[in-house]
Amino acid sequence: MPLAAGVRIGWTDLPGPVRGWVESTLGAQVRTAANQVGGFSPGIAARLATADGSRAFLKAVGAELNPDSVGLHRRELAAMSALPAMPHAPTLIAGYDSSDWVGLLMEDVPGRKPTLPWIRAELGQVLDTVTHVSAQLTPCPWPGAPQTADRLAEAFVHWRALAAEPPADLDPYWLTQLDELATLEEDAAAAGRGESMIHLDIRADNVLLTEGDRAVLVDWAWASRGAPWLDVVILLLNVAQYGPHSAAELDQIVASHPLSRGIDPWLITLVVLGMTGLLEARGRAEPPPGLPTIRAWQRHAALGAGRWLRHRLAGRTG
């Protein structure tokens, strides 16, 4: 099972000004910094412990490691700054932005990532959290939030690119459907319209499970103003990747979840379609700096998304 994992730097690899900002903000010297595994970034992601016993979580990256990661950290800083205090997201302590380096210092949430393949009880815990988060973030509390539909319009273009230049190794089934998929994709981005602040990137490595059956959503770089049921679908695409649920079971979950049960099923199919095209295309690209495993992860994710999409198209769900 390919996992998302950048080649992360450690505490001592950070520039002096970044380390100085962290220790000045925390008011004590950092004694230990335990890097965490996973995530699409080559920057540091570490649990910090200081000389006075306080703890915090640090994310930071520089342009020399990966310029795209700097932009994502900057977007996450803006999103975290807009989040209200709530039990299902870490509290932002402070942010750092020197143009070359961006960092976020947050509360250190004790917890673990969900088990893969997904355990049904843990999936239920995260699905319940998505419902609670939606209630807290509707209406959207972030006045400057980007529009989800705009984000999807940029992302949902890949079936058209694949149709223009079909890869030789593309699944024969998709080859026979490329023209239709490219046409359907044109309408997929509109499904994102809504008035909630949504996460838009819920997957196992962006979730922490804590004691007391609480789930905490981390990595808010893709947060935007849109339809909250999209978070249910994005999460289920991660379940489609790792299992154990079948495509029919995923349909049952999305049809019964409080945020998605009243949604036109064809809109859900269009989002699954758009995400499948994105993963199929991105998985064939060269890996970006510091992220050697991302393309294998995307190819693996494309297989799971594709199985769910084929099931929905076969029954024209919608």
What's the arrangement of secondary structure elements?
Elements: H1 16-26, E1 30-35, E2 44-50, E3 55-62, H2 67-82, E4 92-97, E5 101-106, H3 120-136, H4 148-155, H5 158-164, H6 172-185, E6 196-198, E7 207-210, E8 214-217, E9 224-226, H7 229-242, H8 247-256, H9 265-282, H10 294-314
Antiparallel strand pairs: 1-2, 2-3, 3-5, 4-5, 6-9, 7-8
Helix pairs in contact: 5-6, 5-9, 7-10, 8-10, 9-10
Features:
single chain; 318 residues; alpha+beta; Phosphorylase Kinase, domain 1; Aminoglycoside 3'-phosphotransferase, Chain: A, domain 2; 2 domains; five-stranded antiparallel β-sheet; two-stranded antiparallel sheet; 43% helix; globular
Explain what the structure shows.
It is a single chain. With 318 residues, the chain is an alpha+beta fold. The model has no long low-confidence stretch (mean pLDDT 94). The longest helix has 21 residues, at 294-314. β2 and β3 (55-62) form a beta hairpin. It contains 10 helices and 9 strands. Helix content is 43%, strand content 15%. It has helices spanning 16-26, 67-82, 120-136, 148-155, 158-164, 172-185, 229-242, 247-256, 265-282, 294-314, and strands at residues 30-35, 44-50, 55-62, 92-97, 101-106, 196-198, 207-210, 214-217, 224-226.
